[in-house]
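Moderator note: this is an archived Q&A kept for reference. The question asked for a predicted structure of one protein chain; the sequence and the answer are reproduced below.
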Amino acid sequence: MKSLFEVSIYALIPFVSIILGGIVGVLKKPSGAFNSSILHFAAGVVFSVVAVELLPDILEKHSPIEVAIGFSLGVATMLLVKYYAEQLAKKDKNLASESTLPIGLLVTMAIDLLVDGLLLGVGFAAGDKEGILLSVALAFEVFALGLALSLTFKKKGMSTRQNIGLLAVLGLTFCVGALIGISLLSNLSTEMLEMVLSFGLAALLFLVIEELLTEAHEEQETLFQTTCFFAGFLLFLIIGMIA
């Protein structure tokens, strides 16, 4: 397993990615089709890491009770995060006239990125290759997130410095989540590790189905965008095979 320092280096990949997404959003407003294509590709990449790396590790250990508990906790956690995120978003809309800073949105995204960081820790707990691939996969996700947030901040009248500064702070929550994750998971027993991997499996599947693809389908889908999903899956399937 990678050391805390090495994990922090790989956590910087998504950190840089969210800022790059913000810079793209500041410099030029991408089309909805472009954003949808990125989301489809990111969904394919994350799903590939789940199917090729995490799932085989879970099946190999043959611990159905731990898998059931971890998977159930993962689904329950993500449902709770989604519920409270929706409540914060509604509250944020009600207070929109009082403040230009979208507090509800920022809190929601911070929680989301913290969970993503924890999942990176889960990936490295499964193995070095799993963690490295997951860091790259999550980088595609947070790039699309940074792009979307940057456009939202621009509509709120924020300056470029404020825009990028807020994204950098959000990116740091990802790094914090990754460091917490690997610190807590480095000395787990085999049974507890199986439970944690199952938790991560459920959370990543939730991320693909309920977040990335749901948001991607807000735009009218084309054959190219559908192809992006399978291109992302195939690319990381091949990388996982030869790495």
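Archived answer notes: Residues 4-242 form one domain.
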